Amino acid sequence: MSFTFVAPDTEKELKAQLSEAGSFLMTGGTDLLVKVRIGKIKPQKIVSTLKVPTLHFLENKVDELVVGATISYSELLDFKPLKKDLPILYDAIFTVGSPQIRNRGTLTGNVVNASPAGDGLLALYLLNATVEVSDGSVIPIEKFVIGPGKTILPEREYVRAIHIPKYNWNVHYFEKVGQRNSMTISVASVGWLIRCRNGAIEKFRIAYGSVAPTVLRLKEIERFAEGKTIDENFVHTVSEMVKKSVKPIDDVRGSAKYRKTLCANLVYRMIERRTKC
User: Which class would CATH give 53-165?
Assistant: First the structure.
């Protein structure tokens, strides 16, 4: 099919181009162009963000990292403070696709695509990230994503940046399980963050991907974990709670039964890796 391609130089021009019916926004294009090729969407016009300088920035503040909309995964991975201050996000996006995909794809695209299998998205849920929209609103990530491929992004608006709070976590962990070792979409993924105090858990966050309509933060387990020590009894109890909490489906990558068992078993990584406070 044919469509018009435009690459505005300013956000003002970007908004004007997006105001026309049949317009679709593109940054890296790693998701959009696949959907165009298979006929899932039929744009009249594709509006690229890549020439807009005000969307291409990394702002490393004392309490947060602000990632501009057009910053690629590769640029993030090369940004040294990321691994130091937000290691779980580094670990998650390091698993994304191939170097070619990471050179084009963006964290913002991962958010707007709203796949429950999004690796960067899972880390952003754990980190309580917020989404800065072009209309001036700043929305918590859990409220921004409302379902598979669905967000509350207003029509003709766009994401300007992702705000990611920093916090001093003692333990971080991310793992995704797929049908192969690289360039895979997860059958299930898990991440957790632990803050310790006096030998016990002070704060705990845990989330799963690919097992619900959106990334699933298990806040009941997070509350349960506070004040506990990490031992076999704790891990076994959390594993059972996970098995009851996740809501996977059967699809070509794995059955719901397999995913439930997998999610419960992944909790035992805490013991395997000798995680302690």
Answer: alpha beta
Model confidence pLDDT, tens digit, residues 29-48: 888 888 888 888 888 999 99
Closest CA to 192 of 229, 211, 218, 231: 218
- Tokens 């705000």 belong to which residue? 163
Contact 210, 259 (CB under 8 A): yes
Torsion of CA 163, 166, 167, 172, to 10 degrees: 90
- Which three-class secondary structure state does DSSP give residue 243? helix
Instruction: Give this prediction's pTM.
Output: 0.94
Task: Give the residue carrying structure tokens 């952003």.
Answer: 124
CA angle 85, 87, 88 (to 5 degrees): 130
Q: How confident is residue 181, by pLDDT bands cut at 50, 70 and 90?
A: low
| Phi (first) and psi of residue 214, to 5 degrees | -135, 175
pLDDT tens digits, one per residue of 106-124: 999 999 999 988 899 999 9
Asked if 70 contacts 58 with a C-beta cutoff of 8 angstroms, the reply is no
The CATH number of 171-272 is 3.30.390.50
Give the 3-state secondary structure percentages of the chain, helix then strand then coil, rounded to 5.
Answer: 35, 25, 40
Going from N- to C-terminal start, the domains of the chain cover 53-165, 171-272
